[in-house]
User: Fold this.
Amino acid sequence: MAVTVQKEALSFPRQMFIDGQFVDALGGETLPVIYPASGEEICRVPLAREADVDRAVRAARRVTEDGRWGQMNPHQRERLLHRIADLIEAHAETLAILETLDTGKPIRDVKRIDIPLTVQCFRYYAGWPSKLKGDTIPVRGQFLTYTLREPVGVVAQIVPWNFPLYMAAIKVAPALAAGNAVVLKPSKETPLTALYLAKLMAEAGLPDGVFNVVTGDGKTTGTALVRHPEVDKIAFTGSTAVGQEIMREAAAHIKRVSLELGGKSPHIIFSDADLPQAIQGIVGGIFYNQGEVCLAGSRVFVQKPVYEEVLNGLAAAAKQLKIGDPFAEETTFGALISEDHRKKVDRYVQLGVEEGAALVTGGRIPPGLDRGYYYEPTILAGGHNRMTVAREEIFGPVALVIPFETTEEVIALANESQYGLAAGLWTRDVSTAHNVARALRAGTVWINAYNLLDAAAPFGGYKMSGFGRELGEEGLELYTELKTVWTSLR
Ligand code: NAD
Assistant:
């Protein structure tokens, strides 16, 4: 595995970015960064404790109060955001290498999906600063009453390890467009692209303190950030359990909170679907990014007349995935994030079998790939919706395939979950497609497609998958306060 070659990409300041400076932690502590495809430590980054987080939050506070950012001419803010997008595009190769070293995902996916979506997100929000307007309100009496959209202030943004750069972009771009200052905390597993993004922000000429990155684990750094009294808003993407903790912490100061949490998304094939396309869609829906996707279509419901045909097709397509070196262009399926995570995924597969599902394919470490945290794409079948593997998020490459008979039955099964992030369905019948789309309790429904995101399309969860909508115009609402101004005209 060619890690030595890729290490050139690491020749940038791998320090935190606070108030426009690259800095170490005050206590000098560091954490290792591991390449999941080999288990090697590739570098170390600072571990931020309370005092470091305090420095970052205070820098962000200063720049929101002195008007250098919030009061900046909106056209100037737009130019800066466009410059950031241009720089990300210009540094795409390095960013792709860093993302692959951090996550172990195939570099071809990073180049084709993560980076272009990140650039699109910054470009989309670069258009907004000059369009963030309020309304005049026709109130009773002689008054001029209007609303202003103002930045929330200091925003803490905490992101997971599965799409480190893109998850950061979804949060950072709208927050900056709306005039907030940001303290970003990447996951301890994947800090590198956030730090590189800081380098690009500095190059773009963002005022000091507008964008800060603190690195460290959730317990130390994340908790300090969430508890800091000068943080006005927390935007979090991660597990439902941590989301619950953040809500509890935020209550102390009534901080604004938006949460993008876990999922257990249903993916439905009706018997009239274009089966070859649907099979490809289902395979991509669960095995893209090694299944480490909040949107993963992990509960696959197949209508009985086509059940056997679809199951065979899924098993054959899963076997066609090219598992191996994430830096090889032909690789379509990389390593899982860590040994702990691989063990967790494997435990779920064993549990699925114990609870009565059949192991159709996968369920083991791929032969010859025992270095690094690889695990085969896995299909369990013949189970039911109340099994543990149907209820709990595995966040790995494991699909559970369940047969169904009627439309009413599959709607009930799909909705029988504590989660409601996304859903997909395949049918040629227009009425079935739209009736089912309406009946599903999920923030996004794809018809004859899966896993699509766009900077202009809102995205977020129902139920325990979170609240608030990121992306699109709605994404800006998470980062603005609405002020109403009354003026007497008498
Ligand atoms: P996680 O909840 O363990 O960690 C997410 C982030 O929160 C990390 O940066 C972590 O350091 C930090 N954190 C952990 N504990 C914290 C605490 N007590 N206080 C403050 N911060 C804390 O999740 P993960 O394992 O990194 O990611 C996987 C989870 O993320 C899955 O559940 C997945 O569904 C979810 N996810 C959701 C979306 C979405 O958009 N809905 C997208 C990607 C991932």
